[in-house]
Amino acid sequence: MTTTVIPPDSPPSPPPPPPAKATPTRPGDKIFRGLSRGSGILLLVVMASIAAFLTFRAAIAISGNEGNFFTTFDWDPAGNPPVFGIAVLLYGTVVSSVIAMVIAVPVAVGIALFISHYAPRRLASPLAYVVDLLAAVPSIIYGIWGALFLVPYLGGLNSWLDSYLGWTLIFDKTEIGPARNLFTVGILLAIMILPIVTSVSREVFLQVPKMNEEAALALGATRWEVIRLSVLPFGRSGVISASMLGLGRALGETMAVATVLSPSFLFSGHLLDAGGGTFAQNIAAKFDEANEFGRDALIASGLVLFVLTLLVNGAARLIIARRKEYSGANA
């Protein structure tokens, strides 16, 4: 005989919790949210407006150009027919900026490490103040100093480079003249971007968790090993950001370059030969005397500089986003 066991009644399920009350939004939060959103939209509108204006005026100039805009080594938009190109300007802008970055970034990182980890407090504070003060010096002051000091005194350095490194062809000086060349411009730009890269890098290095440094010291690491294993990995993204800020200023610097450089549209791979040009210097030098079509040509060159700057900053953000080890949180 089979006995059927009747299971006891299951306990009733608890009633569902009452719906959570929505947190009341204060008027100040709504206003702040709207202002923040509007600021972001306004920035996009301004950038789009600048791009649209430059593109429209550049299209007018390029359509009337009888030469190739990217490969022509001449600038004569007032000629008959008009012929102009950006080959020399693009070369001069990129080369002078690269020279500035090669010189400025290592020196700036060294200064930032000295201020944040080596210098005593009574020396670090005044030195940091002086470095920050250099960023406030107007560009024309740097240009005057470069024309009256750097140009005369770099002649000896140019001769030395020509004597010992002339075989590289890059430092081969083929003509005699003052040091009004891309190499001098690169040195001047390096001095100008030095405070920007130093200040940002210093602030990033100061944010390194003290526990990381103390742990490395407790394990017997030297001061340099602490910096190499704890400080530099943590601040790598900050150094990249600081370098991009400095590169942005180097690409668009105008008055200092126009004061030092002896402009010409003769293409030369010898950095010590006088001549060359940059986008910003060419626009500043020829905008007032240009006719309507000539101004459109200058605006077309400005569009290239605008796109070049966006690509540089976009590449920097892409590098930081794709390489997780560049993030200070992963150090």
Automatic annotation (TrEMBL):
Residues 90-316 form the ABC transmembrane type-1 domain. Residues 8-21 have a biased composition (Pro residues). GO terms for biological process: phosphate ion transport. GO terms for cellular component: plasma membrane. Keywords: Cell membrane, Membrane, Phosphate transport, Transmembrane, Transmembrane helix, Transport. The chain crosses the membrane at residues 40-62, 82-115, 127-145, 182-201, 297-320. The keyword Transmembrane applies. SUPFAM superfamilies: MetI-like. It comes from the Bacteria. It is a multi-pass membrane protein. The keyword Transport applies. Residues 1-29 are annotated as: Disordered. GO terms for molecular function: phosphate transmembrane transporter activity. It is found in: Cell membrane. Its main location: membrane. Part of the binding-protein-dependent transport system for phosphate; probably responsible for the translocation of the substrate across the membrane. NCBIfam families: phosphate_pstC. Belongs to the binding-protein-dependent transport system permease family. CysTW subfamily. This is Phosphate transport system permease protein.
